[in-house]
Design brief:
The protein has a 3-stranded antiparallel sheet, with no helix packed on it. The protein is extended and about 65 Å long. The chain is built from 13 helices and 3 strands. The protein has 3 domains: 73 residues, 434 Repressor (Amino-terminal Domain); 55 residues, no CATH class; 48 residues, no CATH class.
Length: 236
């Protein structure tokens, strides 16, 4: 239910958007702390704030002023726009817009179907797109059926966009790739099929999916557990 101001008028869409951005501030602050490897106490010291105030800001109890945002920008190189609104990326880059990325994927699918397959519905949709008559396309069931058929959802591409935007802030390319891999692994680990019998009985699987990788003179065994075995040095 919308909040009604004293004058009885409904809250505007702009006011609601601003309120939503403020609600997202604590999550963005904690994301900054996690990426920077800092605690709330550490950041409070850098900004000259009390730990109590920092805690209240991080929990969304209090709203910080301009000095807070300028301080985070100066200390950690974080974009003020991103910190305040969540738009763009942590370091101020534009990032990838999810809606535009989806539109591009659909445009490619329509063009491919029209040109390569000669699909008459795809050709008709291309004409409407070129003429800016998308309202007519939205009301046509044939167009909806076409898009469902030729552009099935690709969760992996959506994941790629999320990872790109989430890890664009990392300056070190080695750390960036390591973090990207860790995030991708965590994504799929969290969605692995559950062995219901093992979950109920408490039994553990003996298959840990170890893979041995030879790197120079060393051997690395990677899987759920990480082991590293060094080859013995040769005696002279």
């Amino acid at each position: 239910m919308r909040d009604i101001p004293p004058d009885g008028t409904a809250v505007s869409a702009t006011q609601e958007a601003c309120a939503e951005q403020w609600r997202g501030l604590p999550a963005r602050i904690n994301q900054v702390l996690s990426h920077a490897g800092l605690s709330q106490t550490d950041l409070a010291k850098q900004l000259g704030l009390s730990t109590g105030f920092m805690s209240e800001v991080a929990r969304g109890v209090k709203r910080p002023g301009p000095d807070f945002f300028m301080g985070v920008r100066h200390s950690l190189g974080v974009s003020i726009d991103w910190l305040m609104t969540g738009e763009g990326t942590m370091t101020g880059g534009a990032g990838i817009r999810q809606d535009l990325f989806l539109a591009i994927r659909l445009q490619i699918a329509v063009a491919k179907s029209a040109i390569n397959d000669g699909d008459p519905v795809a050709k008709a949709l291309m004409i409407l797109i070129r003429e800016g008559q998308l309202s007519a396309a939205a009301a046509d069931k044939d167009f909806s059926a076409l898009l469902e058929r030729i552009a099935l959802p690709d969760a992996d591409l959506d994941l790629a966009v999320e990872l790109y935007n989430g890890h664009l802030w990392t300056a070190d390319p080695v750390a960036q790739r390591r973090n990207l891999l860790a995030a991708a692994v965590a994504h799929f680990e969290a969605r692995r099929p559950i062995n219901k019998l093992a979950a109920v009985t408490g039994a553990s699987s003996n298959d840990h999916g170890h893979v041995q990788v030879n790197v120079g003179k060393g051997q690395r065994v990677a899987g759920r557990d990480y082991l590293e075995h060094r080859a013995p040095r040769s005696k002279k």
